Amino acid sequence: APVIGVLALQGDVREHVTALTAAGARAHTVRRPAELDAVDGLVIPGGESTTISKLVDIFELRGPIDKRIADGMPVYGSCAGMIMLATEVLDGRPDQRGFDGIAMTVRRNAFGRQIDSFEAPVEITGIPGGPLHAVFIRAPWVERVGEGVEVLGTVTTGPASGRIVAVRQHNLLATSFHPELTGDPRLHAYFVDLTRAAR
Ligand code: GLN
């Protein structure tokens, strides 16, 4: 089974470890460069992207993670993790910085106060078995994608209809929502398969 790390600086780390294990991976937490060296893929959890950005520098993980991404390591970012994988962030803090990740512009806290948190069915390209039950918590959306970025899912109901919430660029995957909170292993299984294929 592939070894998948969960960046364990801040956010809902344990839920991803559980979901990855259920999806057939060996899941490890990652806080140090040596722990990063030992994984085949990495999950960046939801939490607070400004905090994760700061801690990435304090824990001296920015260079090592950018290097692994350049070498083709699969990375999945959920919510704040999606923001950390975006090459451009709108409504971010001026000092927050992401990785050299997916060629996309994301807007932080995009869904607004009225619909701060909500749930919606989202069909994901490449994941059979019907729509995922997507949970959004102060979530970003993807406002623009660059060349080579595949849109995997959009919201199809309600005021946010049409908004992009799942994307992939080669081995990098990102969702606005939190599949680790629903008990549905399909998104994590998709990422485990991607990591297995990349090994
Ligand atoms: N609003 C958070 C941020 O900007 C993301 C929220 C989440 O990860 N649930 O990082």
From TrEMBL:
Pfam families: SNO (PF01174). The keyword Lyase applies. SUPFAM superfamilies: Class I glutamine amidotransferase-like (SSF52317). Keywords: Glutamine amidotransferase, Hydrolase, Lyase, Pyridoxal phosphate. It comes from the Bacteria. L-glutamine binds at residues 47-49, 108, 137-138. Pathway: Cofactor biosynthesis; pyridoxal 5'-phosphate biosynthesis. Gene3D superfamilies: 3.40.50.880. It catalyses: L-glutamine + H2O = L-glutamate + NH4(+); aldehydo-D-ribose 5-phosphate + D-glyceraldehyde 3-phosphate + L-glutamine = pyridoxal 5'-phosphate + L-glutamate + phosphate + 3 H2O + H(+). Its EC number is 4.3.3.6, 3.5.1.2. The active site is at 79 (nucleophile), 178 (charge relay system), 180 (charge relay system). InterPro entries: Class_I_gatase-like, PdxT/SNO, PdxT/SNO_CS. In the presence of PdxS, forms a dodecamer of heterodimers. Only shows activity in the heterodimer. Catalyzes the hydrolysis of glutamine to glutamate and ammonia as part of the biosynthesis of pyridoxal 5'-phosphate. The resulting ammonia molecule is channeled to the active site of PdxS. Belongs to the glutaminase PdxT/SNO family. This is Pyridoxal 5'-phosphate synthase subunit PdxT.
